[in-house]
Amino acid sequence: MVNKEEWKGKSNEELFALYFRESDETEKRALKQEITLRYLYIVKAIAFQMRDMFASFTQPEDIINEGVLEIMKGIERYEPDSNIKFETFISRRIRGMVIDLMRKNDWMPRNFHRDQKSIEDAYRSLSEMNGRAPTDEELAGSTGIDIRRLRKIRSMETMVNVLSLDMTYEDNDSAVLQVPEEDISAQPEKSYLKGETVRMLADAINSLQEKEKMIISLYYVDNLNMSQIAHVMEISQPRVSQLHAQAVKKLRKFMLAEN
After folding, report:
1. What are phi and psi of 223, to 5 degrees?
2. How remote is the C-alpha of 205 from its chain's centroid?
3. pLDDT (0 to 100) of residue 78
């Protein structure tokens, strides 16, 4: 007999153990549904993280629906004895699913790499000439690229870099922390964003709890505010702020210890 009330007090790991022991198909389906709901926040977060990359051909709701199916398939294929957390396992599968969809739908703007190089050259030149980072309007004027296209290319470039870094660190399913340039002097991580220290930062983020990692990624990578993060993760805004402060404190402590 399905007893969902009893499941509420069990951890995700305990539910997986029940699922793989269960022989009754009705009970097994109900357990799969319960486990899927517990990991729904990962699908939502990835949909928000990658929204700029699929916005031209689909909606976040469609990605979330596909992600739910991916979780259900992932539950069947997950091996608890593999020493890989399900969060890590399913995050990679969902990102891979989104990337496959983007490849099928020609997600890269035409002449992306050519325009990207033009923007980089203009950024460097204007920075040296003005002694500050150029605005998007200045970059558009210098390159002759429409400002909406320019912003899309810069957004795509950021996401490509984040995904590349993310897939480089096989033990870390969270995007490496990217602090906006204009705010870098106010962040405790500012000294650790170059060269070998990127590895250290990835290790630091990997040491966080799953919800802390998600908040760091949504806040610094995607520039979501606390209210938006609360909506994505379905927790209160004060709780988001508490977890954010807790995560930053842990990162600072980890990085200082390694430096």
Report:
1. 60, 30
2. 12
3. 92
99, 63 Cβ separation under 8 angstroms: no
233 contacts 210 by C-beta, under 8 angstroms? no
Phi-psi region at 131: left, alpha or beta (left = phi > 0; alpha = psi -120 to 50): left
How many angstroms separate the CA atoms of 107 and 223, rounded?
A: 22
How far apart, in Å, are the Cα atoms of 38 and each of 11, 13, 35, 72? Answer: 10, 11, 5, 12
Q: How many residues does the chain have?
A: 259
Amino acid at 168: T
CA dist 90 and 98 (Å) reads 12
Q: Whole-model pTM above 0.70?
A: no
Place of tokens 């957390």: 85
CA distances from 111 to 51, 106, 189 (A): 21, 12, 34
* pLDDT tens by residue, 58-109: 888 999 999 999 999 999 999 888 888 898 889 888 888 887 777 676 555 5
Q: Is residue 74 within 8 Å of residue 173, measured between CB atoms?
A: no
**What CA–CA distance (Å, rounded) separates 65 from 78?**
20
The DSSP annotation for the chain comes to: ---HHHHTTS-HHHHHHHHHH---HHHHHHHHHHHHHHTHHHHHHHHHHTHHHHTTT--HHHHHHHHHHHHHHHHHH--GGGS--HHHHHHHHHHHHHHHHHHHTT-SPTTHHHHHHHHHHHHHHHHHHHSSPPPHHHHHHHHT--HHHHHHHHHHHHHHHHHHHHHH-TT--SPPP---GGGGGG-TTGGGSSTTHHHHHHHHHHTS-HHHHHHHIIIIIS---HHHHHHHHTS-HHHHHHHHHHHHHHHHHHHHHH-
